[in-house]
Amino acid sequence: MLVLEDVNVFYGAIHALKGISFRVDQGEIVTLIGSNGAGKSTSLKTISGLLRPKSGKMTFNGENLAVVPPQTIVAKGISQVPEGRLVFANMTVIENLEMGAYLRKDKAEIKKDLQRVYELFPRLKERSSQLSGTLSGGEQQMLAMGRALMSKPQLLLLDEPSMGLAPILVKQIFSIIKEINESGTTILLVEQNAHMALSIANRAYVLETGKIVISGDAKELAASEEIRKAYLGG
Ligand code: ATP
After folding, report:
1. Which family does it belong to (predicted)?
2. 39 CA: nearest ligand 1 atom
């Protein structure tokens, strides 16, 4: 579905992604793990078109993504939940969710998807008329995920969904990510919480200073001594 080959991305003189290659197949949960500054967020921003690769190949369903303008990438079926959530604070919960569907015309289907988001996140239904800026951190994470789902993506990009959340909420968010995947959405998950990410992913790539240093089956990586030492706290 998504293929990156030898992608190089720069911030001015800073070489942030140094020839990275990875793929996400339809139906999978793939996770990119790695410590601070490894290039995880940069990878997602490159896929969603906010950053442009200087060289390399990037395709989605066989189409060259590197030449598609960012506003068209959502219409192609890729939706990103950015780090730090970034909901529209002065709009209500339901207005935020409706914004997620702004490119769609299928009113009946939009209504169904709204019900589906409310089933996944009953808290959002309870708070539908509350201003989003007054939601708790966990509720804002739910809203950002719900808003991304309202575009009916084929591929959902999640940037650190566990950041700043209490452990019990982290568990809940990860079980919802699994549920979203089981109902047909492919997921690329960026996480510092390697333990949780590996527990739900099919495959994983480990990034270190802009390069992929290890890749493989998520369960095998979770069991590997090297990964345990470096990323799972021994
Ligand atoms: P974290 O887990 O801390 O968010 P990350 O793996 O997501 O880390 P990135 O945000 O992708 O890391 O950053 C990769 C590298 O690019 C870092 O060295 C960072 O300092 C650099 N970088 C990121 N954004 C910019 C920017 N706007 N200008 C210059 N350098 C940047």
Report:
1. Belongs to the ABC transporter superfamily.
2. 11
